[in-house]
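User: quick one - fold this with 6-phosphogluconic acid bound?
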Amino acid sequence: MGSLSKRKIITVADPAALAKSAADRLSARVSENNGRIAVCLTGGSSPRQLYALLATDAYRGKIPWDRVHWFIGDERFVPADDPRNNMSAARQIFLDECAPTENVHAIPTDADDPNASAEQYAEELKSFYGANNIESDRPLFDLVLMGVGPDGHTASLFPSYPALEETSHWVVGVPKANVEPFVPRVTLTLPALGSCREMLFEVAGTDKRAILTRVFGGENLPANRARSAGETVWLVDQAALPESFRGR
Ligand code: 6PG
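Assistant: Sure. Structure tokens for the protein plus 6-phosphogluconic acid:
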């Protein structure tokens, strides 16, 4: 693992093809590791089709569920039974049915406040990793899933927010979100998210085309600064693809 990687863009036809391609990449990453595996999930609507696919017969048998641990890159600071809770959505779609409970590592939202929650989750990650500092040749995650928001945010790292510049903490509280839902957030930071073999963005739909044009144009946006120490891959469907990337 060397310096932060260049981005690889893979285009697919539509959201169904995107989910299949993401599921294939996830199962490939999982099969490369014979030991304990860590996958960092993401929130929002983009990964839902992938999550549903992982519970189907086609993929369920390909995942060694007892060896895979599921984390989440950011959380809305709302109770677990709130429909906006990211990990609860993942649980409902596939984890409750497929994964052992002890392998599901949710960000605790019953803590006193987002900072306390962030501290607890950082402790959980460090204990899983077995060290207090990230080692450049030993990634924390096998795979980190990501999405991009209309302002160029990823996880809950919003443009110009101090969380984006964080280099020592693995997880931080974010008092106010830049986009809906306007609830406080808890987010992993760029160094923690980047400590992975692969970072995989899923982007689909015409609504994403404007922000992708800005990201791929090299603007200084959180989604552009999020890079894996291994491979950084953007899976993009035709509807989201910027005009200048068509036909490439
Ligand atoms: C969240 C997410 C966030 C998301 C993007 C894209 O908690 O909202 O983790 O970073 O990935 O906002 O969201 P959509 O997939 O809903 O477009």
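One thing worth noting: DSSP finds eight helices and nine strands in the chain.
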